[in-house]
């Protein structure tokens, strides 16, 4: 079974003067502006790294949720923040890291079991597998037993 999702991107003009728009199949993003100014100058709109961060945070969190459910846990909450690092690389740029910070509450679960489940989710979520960079995980808080 293959699930195919898509997004479209347009760019009018070239280089720093160009302006782009990105839309997703679901409509969650619809003609969102992006370009040099949204990527490097904090102007309103989105950028590829922000979209990768959203994809990684949501994929990891869902993978962990399903992993915990598979272990028999049915109550709890997970909140992840993925931060993508973009570094200058010669004349271009390279994504060098995706750092996940995780806050979680899973009543009745021991911390060591939770850490094992979180690391498994980090290694096996499809977006972690996609990224060819250092993927780290920092569990910033956990409440269990």
How does this model look, in words?
It comes from Arsukibacterium indicum. This is OsmC family protein. By secondary structure, this protein is of the alpha+beta class. It is 32% helix and 36% strand. The protein has four helices and six strands; from the N terminus they run E-E-E-H-H-E-E-H-H-E. It has a three-stranded antiparallel sheet with strand order 1-2-3. The longest helix has 23 residues, at 48-70.
Features:
4 helices, three-stranded antiparallel beta sheet, alpha+beta, 145 residues, three-stranded mixed beta sheet
User: What is the number of helices?
Assistant: 4
Share of β-strand residues: 35-45%
Oligomeric state as shown: single chain
Shape designation: elongated
Characterize the largest beta sheet: strand count, sense, and whether it forms a barrel: 3 strands, antiparallel
Integer-rounded radius of gyration? 18 Å
InterPro entries: OsmC/Ohr_fam (IPR003718), OsmC_Ohr_Peroxiredoxin (IPR052707), Peroxiredoxin_OsmC (IPR019904)
Organism: Arsukibacterium indicum
Protein name: OsmC family protein
Outline of the structure:
It comes from Arsukibacterium indicum. InterPro entries: OsmC/Ohr_fam, OsmC_Ohr_Peroxiredoxin, Peroxiredoxin_OsmC. With 145 residues, the chain is α+β, with helices and mostly antiparallel strands.
